[in-house]
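User: Hi! Is it possible to get a structure for several chains at once, not just one? Here's what I have:
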Amino acid sequence: MKANTFKRGVHVPDHKEITMEKPVVEMEQVSDYYFSCSQHMGAPASPVVGVGDDVKRGQLIAAASGGFSANVYSSVSGTVKEIVRRKNARGINNDYIYIVNDFEDRTAVLPSIEPTKENILNRVFEAGIVGLGGAAFPTAVKLKPKTPVDVLVINGAECEPYLNCDYRLMLEKADEVVKGVKLIATALGVSDIYVGIEVNKPLAIELLSKFNGIKVIPLKKKYPQGAEKQLIYACTGRVVKTATLPSDSGCVVQNVATAYAIYQAVNEGKPLYERIMTISGGAVNQPKNILVRSGTPIKAILDFCGGVKDNVTKLILGGPMMGQALENDDVICNKADGGLLALTEEEACRVEPSPCINCSRCAQHCPMHLMPMYIDFYTLAGKYDMAVKYGVNDCFECGVCSYVCPAKRTLVQSIKLCKGKLKEMSAKK
Amino acid sequence: MNTKLVYSGSPHIRSNSSTRRIMLDVVIALIPACVMGVIWFGLRAWLWLALTVISAVVFEFLFNIVINKKSFLQCVREFDLTSVVTGMLLGMNLSVCVEWYVCVLGSAFAIIVVKMLFGGTGRNLFNPAIAGRIFLLLSFTSMTKYMAVGDVFGELTIAAGATPLTELYTSGVANASLLDMFIGRIPGTIGETSAAALILGGIYLVIRKVIDFKLPLIYIGVTGLLTVAFYGFDFGMFLPSILGGGLMLGAIFMATDYVTTPNTKLGNIIYFVLLGALTAVLRWYKSSECVSYAIMIMNMTVPLFDRYIVNKPFGAHDKKKA
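Assistant: Yes, the chains can be modeled jointly so their relative placement is included. Here is the combined structure:
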């Protein structure tokens, strides 16, 4: 199969076989749900329900504050017990709406609409849809680009190892996904639609190729194939300039799961409150692909998958390359989280970093063509302005440099530190 | 859940490469050439190789324990085989005719002065083995006396310093057949003579993706072709000039040392072209082996390469037009 790709990057063992053949099952309900007001990038939503209120499944419980924010919906019916502050996956305190489930599933739906450009855009915002590829960027913002766009790229690459949530979605809900894609195209007013899928998902490629109006592009299995700029390059050959948005190059990228969410919001009146999640890793007793309601505690999800083995060393929300390690299992799953991994000692490499030997593998593999060894060197030396010269601001923290480093240097951490320090410095000015 | 979880930044999985594994690959790749050295130059060659390797490791440990105040166990844990590679390369760069203390002194200079004083692994300006060899060349005349090959267990017979390469440059004809030069049945240092074994090691390194096959080829090609050009386009010079001396060892194992090469692909290509040219010019000018001097001189230019040749970020190329 002829496959497109981008330059550089790295081949990572994908471990997708663990859950690749497992159909999506719906997770059973638990009694306690916590809904973060900050499940998206941007301003936190403000709660619109009070303690003691009765809520339905699919009822608005926190409203977006401003345009760069997203609505939050309840995924169960029940009573609001409390509005609490608790730590999110990153260890930052957020407001959470604590709802006790009554297991009745009284469901509210949004009114049905005509799928016109205006209506779709409004519904995407109303339904609280965010990018489900991982960053949780408010989709409504992305669908209103400031510059004219002519190409829509749909991300079905799923290059993160272990995860199969997008793959299972494409297999099981191909019709709905494609309808969702067409809705996005209507909202943007484009007719050129590319769907990029890595060649390790031949069934998905075959299935989606049957639909008219979309061009399925087989992509090489290479990490980070699903990164926005790399995907655009692989599908369209366009190079997104540094420090510009993809829309400046006439492209908008959306994930397949986002397309499905948009289909559900527009055609079924269902806001975004649940998604498919892959629970995998060597330390999970029963790896599964499950449909999870947002606000479910991680502990309940792991229990649903048979719990974790004793040799678990790392819990990760998201994929192993860019996901967030968890301090403990007392964390809540948000609406954009697509993976939960429990890795064993052997899988999660824990080696002390040793001195850089200048092998330049990080620079040879960096998908943004940066020189991570110098960013690391100058960051550790406190010379953040020199790190800028070597491209720290263009880094999207895919983790390729740290992955390939034979000296096991913590390059991504240095880059994150440097970005933080640069932000601090510019705030002072 | 009772287990303590590890809380650290992404990525959470790592490739299985390591500094130690890379250095082990280099050691494995050097073994054929060492074996050939022992076959042609006898057990004394084996002893000298063992002596340089052991003393290199001992000096690294001593420095770490005495100066860096590390515990012995910590040294063992951090031991990354780089000193073994340095010791092997230094031993391969010695003539079997040197005295035993020359081996130890060379290791001491390479490890303590060139490597550890500059900050240890990854911080040295010069390739330690090259610098050690040059230190010994300038200090001991026995370094330039070579043994005639063949008498494996016999008495040491010293031929007065004429490798096929020097013969080639002084009289215009190499004093050995191409086949002898290829398999290493010629006077020379312990590890440099057998081109076949060195190429075999080089192929192993390329397969293991430790080195880029282009770089030694560029070096060898440029040196050979320029030599041909300097001697009135006499293409008979090509093979003897690349097989007769230390070029194979230098190009495959010494010049490709990660620490002392530029960090970009473009920089590396320019670096190796210049290195090849410098080697040819120095050899032509001095009428003798100059690979190690060329590498050492070019080592000094690496910071310049890294300063002025920097990868452009993906998408940065169009910035000026916009």
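The longest strand of chain B covers residues 146-147. The longest helix of chain B spans residues 43-66.

User: Great, thank you!
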